[in-house]
């Protein structure tokens, strides 16, 4: 896969972007319930709409496990972010549980992709957008959702992904607040690399955006806007 890049200085210097900030219509979470009474922190983002292009979210909610937690129940959930009502869920019972109900070909995919496909089955063909975090994001997931008439936007963990273009990576020469786009030549996917602080780059992946677009009110790229 080949990428070509385009740079822009369009992010506020005093605003740090560590994750995709959206308020999606649905939240897919990975929660662990234990016998101990604990508070679960949900990291929800911000974008909601009533149109056919309503955004969904695939996000992982992980608890900080303490020493006394020895067992629990892990549940993969798809929730409505506006009402907090549960939309879809399943109990994680082991490595093969993410693929229950999927075809033989789908079960050959990575576990995060299997989990997303399983929970988003009722949404296939709806032309909606799925928003996710590092654990879910991959080119594989983007392609599988595209086959199901769904797009994807999410943070892209550089340690687990192959980003060959040096312009998209963190380096001291990139000014704080700069944004650099990478466009694939053979697949409809866009990478956005933002510099929130010196020598740090946050990379986002999107199959919903195909050109550099900026929110004029907030001076932020559309991919990462509030």
Describe the 3D structure.
By secondary structure, the chain is mostly beta strands. The chain has one domain (3-224). The chain has 2 helices and 12 strands, in the order βββββαβαββββββ. It has helices spanning 111-119, 139-147; strands spanning 3-9, 26-34, 55-58, 72-80, 86-92, 129-132, 151-155, 178-184, 190-197, 200-206, 214-215, 220-221. The strands form 2 sheets. The chain has a 10-stranded mixed beta sheet, covered by helices on one side. It has a two-stranded antiparallel sheet with strand order 11-12. β9 and β10 (200-206) form a beta hairpin. The longest helix has 9 residues, at 111-119. The radius of gyration is 18 Å and the shape is globular. Mean pLDDT is 73; it is low at 13-19, 33-54 and 59-63. Residues 9-34 have a biased composition (Acidic residues). This is Transposase IS4. Residues 67-218 form the PiggyBac transposable element-derived protein domain. It comes from Popillia japonica (Japanese beetle). It holds the Pfam family DDE_Tnp_1_7.
């Amino acid at each position: 896969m080949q990428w070509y890049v385009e740079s822009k200085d369009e992010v506020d210097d005093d605003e740090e972007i560590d994750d995709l900030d959206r308020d999606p219509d649905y939240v897919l979470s990975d929660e662990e319930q234990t016998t101990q009474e604990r508070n679960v922190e949900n990291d929800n983002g911000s974008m909601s709409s009533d149109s056919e292009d309503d955004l969904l979210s695939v996000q992982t909610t992980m608890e900080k496990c303490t020493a006394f937690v020895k067992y629990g129940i892990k549940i993969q959930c798809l929730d409505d972010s506006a009402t907090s009502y549960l939309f879809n869920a399943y109990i994680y019972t082991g490595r093969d549980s993410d693929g229950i109900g999927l075809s033989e070909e789908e079960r050959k995919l990575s576990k995060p992709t299997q989990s997303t496909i399983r929970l988003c089955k009722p949404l296939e063909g709806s032309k909606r957008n799925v928003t996710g975090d590092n654990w879910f994001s991959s080119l594989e997931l983007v392609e599988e959702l595209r086959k199901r008439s769904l797009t994807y936007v999410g943070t892209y963990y550089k340690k687990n992904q192959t980003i060959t273009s040096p312009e998209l990576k963190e380096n001291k020469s990139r000014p704080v607040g700069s944004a650099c786009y990478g466009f694939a030549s053979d697949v409809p996917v866009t990478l956005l690399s933002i510099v929130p602080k010196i020598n740090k780059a946050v990379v986002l992946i999107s199959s919903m955006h195909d050109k550099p677009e900026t929110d004029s009110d907030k001076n932020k790229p559309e991919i990462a806007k509030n």
